[in-house]
From TrEMBL:
Pfam families: tRNA_Me_trans, tRNA_Me_trans_C, tRNA_Me_trans_M. This is tRNA-specific 2-thiouridylase MnmA. It comes from Amycolatopsis saalfeldensis. The active site is at residues 101, 197. Catalyzes the 2-thiolation of uridine at the wobble position (U34) of tRNA, leading to the formation of s(2)U34. InterPro entries: MnmA-like, MnmA-like_C, MnmA-like_central, MnmA-like_central_sf, Rossmann-like_a/b/a_fold. One of its GO terms (cellular component) is cytoplasm. Belongs to the MnmA/TRMU family. Residues 147-149 are annotated as: Interaction with tRNA. It is an enzyme of class 2 (transferase).
Amino acid sequence: MRVLAAMSGGVDSAVAAARAVDAGHDVVGVHLALSAKPGTLRTGSRGCCTIEDSHDARRAADIMGIPFYIWDFAERFTEEVVETFVGEYAAGRTPNPCVTCNEKIKFEALLEKAMALGFDAVATGHYARLAVVDGEPMLRRSVDEGKDQSYVLASLTPEQLSHAMFPLGDSWKSEVRAEAERRGLSVANKPDSHDICFIPDGDTQKFLENRLGQRPGELVDAETGAVLGQHTGVHGFTVGQRKGLGIEAPASDGRPRYVLSLEPVSGTVKVGSSAGLGIDAIEADRAIWPSGQALDGPTECVVQVRAHGGIAEAVAEADGERVSIQLREPLRGVAPGQVVVLYRPDNESGDLVLGSAKISSTR
């Protein structure tokens, strides 16, 4: 097959490309330029997509002996990922930009261009696996559950999955680094990028304030309605947040206060004790079914609401693009705007992804 290998400049995508070559595919490497100012998107292990990263990807492609190109997706990345991120926070929701990037950039824009150029598949360094169930590709968790990225890939469609390759899904991260060392790849010990790539200093609040300005409002006790303080914008908060509230007095239980809800229209941030964070039901919309099949009646499943953590057994039911979820055990700090991913437990092949949706409300 003709395979386009997405090469970020990190160890995972480099080894994924090398394995595609070893499998006998006709491989071409491509690095996505996602910023008009690439020098600003990395600080140590934070961020990605810098000039340094493109050079690392090119050196890895040279060692493999494969063609290598850089494609400029900066404008689309800004529109689809960065502006969506800002808009969601302005609306009092908590987005996951990695989910958006995989959906809109790596497996929509990139795959679309790859198919137009005659490629059969796109290979990436994601830690996830594909399983064929009843003749259809299904996404499932990686062997290395600590690095599993099926959560951020759960918005892919069956058609996109049929043209995707995840060569690292059956490997542990330690094995991938050791393999990169054996292959003589200079990225073998390169730190993993983390946090939000377009906010390399990790200061999300400052980034959002620079984009949205100050939108003053009140910090209000959820139990009594008492005003406890002022803030400069609901975009500086997320449900479950404890630090940075600027409130000295503890909650009624004598413990720290947490953000319980955001009201962007009034500018109100409601805070209270940790007991107020627990929820047992989720409503979500904009459902996507990578499995190709929507839920058929109430379905026992496992749900995950964060890329790492926030997992509980549940019963889910779909109605068109809406999904109602009743949790078997409460989850804390679940915010509108987050993605909820539904898994079907499978002891033989690992958890299979049934679908995903955007959380609209909780109770």
